[in-house]
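User: structure tokens for this one?
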Amino acid sequence: MKKSLKRRLKRFFRFLYGWGVIQWILALIYYVLIWFVYFTSKKQITGYQILKKYRDKPAIFVFWHGRTMMLSPVIALARVRGYAIADARKDGRAIAKMEKLFGLKTIYGSSSGGGVSVLKKGVSVLNAGGNCLALSPDGPNGPSMRFHDGALYFAKMTGAPIIPVCYSSSRPWFQNRWDRYLLTKPFSIIAGTVGEPIFIDRKTKIEDFEKIRKNLEDIMIKQAYDLDKRFTDFRVEQDLTPENFKDKAVIL
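Assistant:
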């Protein structure tokens, strides 16, 4: 009986979550909470000058799906102009509304599975100049910390650099889900890294993508692990997906 009630409540809240007005209310709540955490925390951002250099130039900022929370205010305060690629499903639309409050417009789709439409829109934004793209190369369905090659196509077709960014914190809460989403508690130390720009020559052949993809993946994994080990022994796993997460029975 309890399980049946729980399922009904879950379906009811999922139904409510599909309403635009509910998504806006939640987006505003998230927005306020994130700023509260940010302003009560001490910030240590390495490479911030790179962020400022490319804030109004074509660039592709990449970050793991589980590391978005505290990047939003950093990007907002750096006055970065641009678009975020977001999942078109309910969760993605709610997050997109929150990112709009932080100053980022939205392209709905996926850097790995969004198809030709997302690629065209992203290329158009970058070629127009003055805007960046922000995307998670392992989202929205994983595998975790695996770099899909969507960002490589954007870089090759536009000449815009790929810039890997990441953060960790001294008071982390890694959620029990496939991407180990990192929630930062108030009064933390927020440590972030903005990596060096990586350019892909327009003449690069598709068969050479794997070497570049693996190099970027290694850089981003090192960013995350180096930042995390300053504060915690917890190590985020690779290759988790929403489907196989429960099967692995990972215990925090």
